[in-house]
C-alpha cells in the first residue's frame, strides 16, 4: 500500500487501546512519513513506535502545554511541514488532548484529516449487546460524589444508551452512584481491559456490576467503559398529584426522607420518587 504524505496537513491518528495488532497499516505509514509526531506522552509512545520500527521525531503535546504550543505547531504546518497527532491510546481528542490544535488548524486554514482506528467507546459499544442505534458519550463522570450524582440525575430520563469512561480508582463508586440514581435494575455492561489479556465484558444490570466489583477486587483493576441502557420508553410517569406531594416534601426535607414519606402517602415506589427528586435537584 502506498500512502502519500501531504505537506501542511495535520493527521489525527488513532493508536491501539491495548492490542498493538490493532494499528492500521495506513496509520503506520503516516507515522513513518510525517515530519513530526505530536504525542501526549513521548515516553509512552516511544515504545509503540520502536515496536513499529518508526523513528520520526516526536514532541510532547499534553493538557498542560497544548495551548502554549498550538500557535507554534500551526505555524510549522503553514510553513509546509506535515504533522501527526497521537495520544497514549485510542483516538486523539476523545477524552484526550488535541482539541485546541485541531480548532486552530481549522481557523488557520490548515487541512486536518483523520486516520481512524480504535476508540474504547466504540469498541465497547460494538460488543455490549445494548442498543447502538442512538447513544450518548458522557466521557469521565465528575470525581466527587455530589457532582457525579447531580450529573447522573440529568440522565434519568435519557432514552439512548449511555457510555462512560472510568478509572480503576473510581469505578466502584461510579457504579454505586449510577445504581442509586438510575436504579439497580437498569441493564448495563462493564467493559474492562478491552483487547487486552484480561478483557471482560460483564452484561447484567447496575446492581450486579456493583456486586461483582465489591466481591472480586481483581475486577476493579485496569481500564473501564461502563455502558448503561437508556430509560425504557414506556416508563410510567408519576401522576400530577404524586409530583405535587413530592415537590412539597422535597422543599422541606432531605431527598431520601422526602421520597420515603411521599411513598407512604401516595403508594408509589420509594426509588422512583427518589430518582424523580434527584433529577429535579440536578435541574435547579
Ligand atoms: N482516546 C481514548 C479512546 O479513544 O478511547 C480514551 C482516552 S481516556 C484518557 C482513557 C479511558 O478510556 C480509560 O480510563 C478507560 O475509561 C477508557 N479505555 C481506554 N482503553 C481501554 C480499554 N482497553 N478497555 C476499557 N476501557 C478503556
Rg, Å, rounded: 23 Å
Helix count from the secondary structure assignment: 11
CATH fold-level name of the largest domain: Cobalt-precorrin-4 Transmethylase, domain 1
CATH architecture classification of the largest domain: 3-Layer(aba) Sandwich
By CATH reckoning, the class of the largest domain would read: Alpha Beta
Query: How do the SSEs run, as a string of H and E?
Result: EHEHEHEHEHEHEHEEHEHHH
In percent terms, what proportion of residues is strand?
Answer: 15-25%
The largest sheet is: 5 strands, parallel
Tell me, rounded to a whole number, the average pLDDT.
94
Question: What are the distinct ligands in this entry?
Answer: S-adenosylmethionine
What structural category characterises the helix and strand content?
A: alpha/beta
Number of domains: 3
The multimeric state of the shown protein is single chain
The end-to-end span amounts to 56 Å
* CATH superfamily (homologous) name of the largest domain: Tetrapyrrole methylase, N-terminal domain
Strand order of the largest sheet: 3-2-4-1-5
Overall outline: elongated
- Share of helix, binned: 40-55%
* Strands, total number: 10
Uncertain spans: none
Amino acid at each position: 500500500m502506498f500512502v502519500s504524505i501531504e505537506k501542511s496537513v495535520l493527521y489525527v491518528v488513532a493508536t491501539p487501546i491495548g492490542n498493538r495488532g490493532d494499528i492500521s497499516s495506513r496509520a503506520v505509514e503516516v507515522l513513518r512519513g510525517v515530519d513530526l509526531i505530536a504525542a501526549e506522552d513521548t515516553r509512552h509512545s516511544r515504545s509503540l513506535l520502536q515496536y513499529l520500527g518508526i523513528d520520526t521525531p516526536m514532541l510532547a503535546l499534553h493538557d498542560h502545554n497544548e495551548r502554549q504550543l498550538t500557535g507554534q505547531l500551526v505555524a510549522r504546518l503553514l510553513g509546509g511541514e506535515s504533522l501527526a497527532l497521537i495520544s497514549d491510546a485510542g483516538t486523539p481528542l476523545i477524552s484526550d488532548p488535541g482539541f485546541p490544535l485541531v480548532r486552530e488548524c481549522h481557523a488557520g486554514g490548515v487541512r486536518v484529516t483523520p486516520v481512524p482506528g480504535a476508540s474504547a467507546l466504540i469498541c465497547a459499544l460494538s460488543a455490549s449487546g445494548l442498543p447502538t442505534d442512538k447513544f450518548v458519550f458522557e466521557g469521565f463522570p465528575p470525581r466527587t460524589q455530589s457532582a457525579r450524582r447531580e450529573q447522573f440525575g440529568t440522565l434519568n430520563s435519557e432514552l439512548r444508551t449511555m457510555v462512560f469512561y472510568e478509572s480503576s480508582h473510581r469505578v466502584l463508586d461510579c457504579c454505586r452512584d449510577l445504581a442509586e440514581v438510575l436504579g439497580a435494575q437498569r441493564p448495563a455492561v462493564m467493559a474492562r481491559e478491552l483487547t487486552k489479556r484480561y478483557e471482560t465484558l460483564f452484561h447484567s444490570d447496575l446492581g450486579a456490576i456493583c456486586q461483582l466489583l465489591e466481591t472480586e477486587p481483581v475486577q476493579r483493576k485496569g481500564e473501564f467503559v461502563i455502558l448503561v441502557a437508556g430509560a425504557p420508553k414506556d416508563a410510567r410517569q408519576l401522576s400530577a398529584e404524586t409530583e405535587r406531594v413530592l415537590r412539597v416534601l422535597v422543599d422541606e426535607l432531605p431527598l431520601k426522607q422526602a421520597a420515603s414519606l411521599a411513598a407512604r402517602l401516595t403508594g408509589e415506589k420509594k426509588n422512583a420518587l427518589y430518582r424523580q427528586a434527584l433529577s429535579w435537584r440536578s435541574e435547579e
